[in-house]
Design goal:
Helix content: 40-55%
Shape: globular
Number of domains: 2
Oligomer: single chain
Strand content: 5-15%
Distance between the termini: 30 Å
Strand order of the largest sheet: 2-1-3-4
Largest sheet: 4 strands, parallel
CATH class of the largest domain: Alpha Beta
Number of helices: 12
């Protein structure tokens, strides 16, 4: 008889459509963008924007892209690598633990994952959002949803939440190892491209509502680690990887991708940086995307295809994406340390 697990680990990724068909992509985009932490405007305005404009127009375009990266057997890359991470972490932790995987948007849902854990009568549950840098729209949304659901339980196990792990040593080593596979000396410049956020969301972490952030961040957030500043943590991850690789400051740049709408997002934008690097005569770029722990549409297509083509159009020659953490054993060891709060 197998030993009964007493501790639960809930891994939560962002999400993925159930299929690359337009209807499923529209459903995914609608759930994602209707989250008040993602598009933080009044509900009626958000509904009109998302359901009336964004989802109907973006779904067909996104569906075409998903079809180029979708595997008939394993589905989306994000789902494929997330399942691998769940299974390897389960194997590493052993029978005392039960590891569940959920997606913040679509399936497997957080609600169903928590139902599975509830039925096991566990002593404790640790929630690990699979986002190294904290943001209200990502880790904050995951924690918010878990708290909303678990408060309905009649018994409450010991709960703990991981808000960020932007400098986790084994995670940093894994990113560095993956970069070394590409002969770093071959490239003119190193780019760290993170998922963007509206600038106003940076200041909303301040309970006094007095914080106003510049579009490219303040000097202090670029050089010190603020536990709840997304931009600060992006810089911290970058510094750690650069130090691991022995890079000088003039050898790399930070930028932000996936902008939505017309309001200011964190800058510099990846497209703007590509233009600047092309003007400087840079021809070959090695690109990290350390906001993601698994390769997905934002890495494989947005960087590997869209930005690569854009850079070549500007006169560049090569954009090489650094593989994400995926199923690397060292990353699984990092996840284990995070799960054990070590």
């Amino acid at each position: 008889m197998s030993k009964k697990a007493t501790k639960g680990i809930l891994l939560v990724q962002l999400g993925t459509p159930d299929s690359p068909e337009t209807s499923d992509v529209r459903r995914y985009l609608t759930e994602f963008l209707m989250d008040g932490r993602v598009i933080d405007i009044p509900y009626i305005s958000r509904t009109l924007l998302v359901k009336g404009i964004i989802a109907p127009t973006r779904a067909p375009k996104s569906a075409k892209i998903y079809k180029t990266i979708w595997d008939k057997e394993t589905g989306s890359p994000l789902m494929h690598y997330s399942i691998i991470q769940r299974d390897l972490l389960q194997e590493s932790l052993g029978e005392d633990y039960h590891v569940e995987l959920a997606m913040r948007y679509q399936n497997p849902s957080i609600e169903n994952a928590l139902k599975n854990l509830e039925g096991m009568m566990l002593d404790s549950i640790r929630v690990i959002p699979l986002f190294p840098q904290y943001a209200s729209a990502t880790s904050g949304s995951v924690i918010d949803r878990v708290m909303e659901l678990i408060r309905k339980w009649n018994y409450l196990p010991s709960m703990s939440f991981v808000s960020s792990y932007c400098q986790e040593p084994l995670m940093i080593e894994t990113f560095a190892d993956h970069a070394r596979q590409h002969n770093i000396a071959h490239f003119d410049h190193i780019v760290f491209s993170y998922h963007g956020l509206p600038v106003r969301q940076l200041g909303k972490v301040d309970p006094t509502k007095q914080l106003v952030c510049p579009e490219d961040g303040c000097d202090s957030c670029k050089n010190t680690v603020n536990s709840f500043c997304y931009l600060s943590q992006c810089h911290a991850t970058t510094r750690a990887i650069a130090e691991q690789l022995g890079l000088q400051k003039d050898q790399y740049s930070i930028c932000f991708q996936s902008r939505l709408g017309k309001e200011p997002w964190i800058q510099p934008y990846t497209s703007t940086l590509l233009e600047q690097l092309a003007e400087q005569g840079k021809k070959k770029l090695l690109v990290f995307s350390p906001a993601f722990v698994a390769d997905c549409i934002e890495t494989i297509d947005e960087i590997g295809v869209e930005y690569a083509n854009e850079f070549k159009h500007l006169g560049g020659e090569e954009v090489q994406l650094v593989e994400s953490l995926n199923g690397d054993p060292k990353w699984i060891a990092a996840l284990k340390r995070i799960a054990l709060d070590a």
